[in-house]
Each structure stands twice: as C-alpha cells, then as structure tokens.
Amino acid sequence: MEFRILGPPEAATADGPVRLAGHRQRMVFAILLANAHRVVSVDSLVDALWEDRPPATARRQVRN
Questions:
Q1: pLDDT means per 10 residues in the chain (64 residues)?
Q2: Residues 46, 62: contact at Cβ < 8 Å?
Q3: Which of helix, strand or coil describes residue 4?
Q4: How far, in whole angstroms, is CA 56 from its chain's centroid?
Q5: Residue 19 carries which DSSP code?
Q6: Using CA atoms, how far apart are residues 18 and 59, in angstroms rounded to an integer?
Q7: pLDDT value of residue 55
C-alpha cells in the first residue's frame, strides 16, 4: 500500500487508487497517517474536523 499526504491525501494498492470520499474522510486519513503508531482519540479528530463548532453527531460521524 502506498500513501501520499503532500498535496491531496491519496492511498493506492497494487490494484489502483483507494477512493477517499469527501473532505472529512481525507482529513481523517491525513491525521491518522501523520500520527502513525500513536493513538489518536475521537475527541482530537472531532477538534481537527470541526474546530469550535462540532455538530451533536460529530463523535458518531468520526466513528462511522
């Protein structure tokens, strides 16, 4: 598997690119890659994705 985070975040396998649907999914992907081998809490992902105004469903959306 190959990962790219300079420019638009991308992932690819030998079979071709992996589809990352939407801005938030690409952000989560980039955050997790930047923190490889470390625990990233749901709360820190919520903070990164929505800053000061997370919706009531933010934690559920991150888990999905």
A1: 87 92 90 94 95 93 91
A2: yes
A3: strand
A4: 19
A5: P
A6: 24
A7: 96
